[in-house]
Amino acid sequence: MSKVTKGSAAALFDLYGKPSVGQAFPLAMQHVVAMIVGCVTPAIIVAGTGGLSGEDSVILIQAALVMSALTTLIQLYPLGKKGAFMIGSGLPVIMGISFAYVPSMQAIAGEFGVGTILGAQIVGGVVAVLVGIFIKQIRKFFPPLITGTVVFAIGLSLYPTAINYMAGGTSSESYGSWQNWLIAFITLMIVTALNHFGKGIWKLSSILIGIIVGYIVSLGFGMVDFSAVSEAAFFQLPKPLHFGVVFEPSACVAIGILFAINSIQAIGDFTATTTGGLERMPTDEELTGGITAYGFCNIFSALFGGLPTATFSQNVGIVSSTKVVAKRVFGMAAGILLAAGLIPKFSSLLTTIPYCVLGGATVSVFASIAMTGVKLITAAPMNYRNTTIVGLAIALGMGITQANAALASFPAWVTMIFGRSPVVLATITAIILNLVLPKDQDDKSIKIMAEDQPDT
Questions:
Q1: C-alpha dist (Å) from residue 273 to 164, 310, 429
Q2: How far is CA 352 from the centre of its chain?
């Protein structure tokens, strides 16, 4: 336990420190502001794709906030005894609904409905638990080159969603209107300007501020309908099994693969948290506990309509820059998220944000995801072998999913697994190529190829 004096400034920089409410609250709000838009946007996107009613959309967003809060608390305060089997990492991380699953969730929601996503999520949770238990044996199959390729594919696959939203949403009668594009670009310019020229809280809350400005502008165009807010209750608990749970094999395979990948990717966030905030590497116990908690919490969340969660990298970045690691700060942030989720009027207010505003704000997020993938990829030497792995994985993943009739003669389950989201096919291709291509095929191959080329 911490020996730092309670309420002292040093308590903020101690994992078990007990800073005062006045010290912790602003820092907790900083974490909430940095992640809340990213947390609820996947739920808004899935609700739109699945054709949910206004009331069901509010319930889905509410579940996103509540389950993110509970998952964060379990990571902070693990279940079980230290030294034995423990569910939770005990590290200062923030959990939220992940964009990594959005492409596959859109395909599943459009074809089968939200209940099928939740059924697949339960299977994915079991996969994550197994990955956590056998992390030492599995980790070698997912080097940065592979995880980077997957993250890059996720970012690329989200671009059409952002562009369609900037145009107003494909279901809108005003799709493609100049008003939608104007508001989208105003939002995008605000976010970009704050990211590059803002400092402190202005930079951390750039997306939130961009959405607020875009929202105000859209009010002037009469694009906001508050009827759902007036009808929403002031307090409501999440509704268990409201959307049902449906197990569809092809959806389970697609989501299960992503859970395996994101379980491995979580190692990066846990490592960045401990190295940036605690100046050490995470222990095997922390990694195992963190990943198994990720699995168990997603199983539980699915029963209450909460979509797949993951560690939020932007909050990891805050830890690395501020060095604030006191659990009390993160627990308070989780409490704020929980309170927001229990107030349907707040959740319903989020559903009034026009699609063009969301598109203008999230296109930069999706670009950041893609470039994070590029950074991971380039951490490995870009020799002929590695460029082949990345190039073929992205080419097959993006190419087949964009050619709508490419798998028309195959069974429906093949189309669902491989033809709806580029992430799954890109992942499988990258893993197989990494296993079968010889690792001694380095830049000598390029030199030989160059020598064989005729002079120009």
A1: 35, 14, 30
A2: 22
Question: What is the full DSSP assignment across 289-313?
Answer: HHHHHHHHHHHHHHHTTPPPEEE-H
228, 231, 234, 238 alpha-carbon torsion, rounded to 10°: -70
pTM value is: 0.75
What is the rounded distance in angstroms from the CA atom of residue 198 to the CA atom of residue 189? 13
The H or E element that residue 240 is part of is none
Angle at 81 between CA 80 and CA 87, to 5 degrees: 35
Q: How confident is the model at residue 125 (pLDDT cuts 50, 70, 90)?
A: very high
Secondary structure of the chain: what % helix, strand, coil (to 5)?
70, 0, 30
Q: Residues of 222-245 as b/e, b for ≥16 C-beta within 10 angstroms? A: ebbeeebbeebeeebebeeebbeb
Question: Which region among 1-5, 276-280, 420-424 has the lowest average model confidence (pLDDT)?
Answer: 1-5
- The Cα 53–Cα 113 span in angstroms is 13
Number of C-beta neighbours around residue 192 at 10 A: 16
The candidate with the shortest Cα–Cα distance to 328, out of 1, 27, 5, is: 27
Residue 396 identity: L
Quick check: 123 and 252 in contact, CB under 8 A? yes
Q: Which has more pLDDT, 105 or 281?
A: 105
Residues recorded for the chain: 456
